[in-house]
Design goal:
Elements (H helix, E strand, L loop, with lengths): L6 H23 L4 H12 L3 E3 H8 L3 H13 L3 E5 L5 E5 L1 H9 L1 H13 L3 H28 L1 H16 L6
Antiparallel strand pairs: 1-3, 2-3
Helix pairs in contact: 2-3
Length: about 170
Amino acid sequence: MKGYTTAEMKRFNYLISETNAVYHEAAQKLGLSDSTQQVLYTICNNGDSCLISDICRLSGISKQTINSALRKLEGEGIVYLEASDGRKKRVCLTERGKKLAEDTVVKLIEIENGLLDSWSREELEQYLGLTQRYLDSLRAKVQELRARGAAGSLADMEDSADTAETGGADS
């Protein structure tokens, strides 16, 4: 099977993978699991609390994994859950949770802020603008995939196989 990925896309994928590896390493050095780091990070980005659905959406981690992490954190007295609008639940940091966050993910956030602060305004705007453009375009193309559906692709493959079997002749 030939390679489909361009050299630029390979580089992009490499950079994303390496960035994720650095965040994993940071979690380990801070004594946190990846999911715990993501939960605390997302809460800190929103103040001292946020909705469970926001944690799932913003972290890209499954609801089951987030719920497991939350049960563990709740058992350790790091977070507590409170009812929000309707069936939604808000995750809140306890005092112990705030201390843990300050000793771990807040340090990571400060590193990130410092890195971006070291860039010129033009570099920062260019990076953010291009990243947003990539995200918007990717999201639109994925929506097109959904609209077309994977079943359409499978049907196309089956049609091609039928044509090959009959030698392209109609029955």
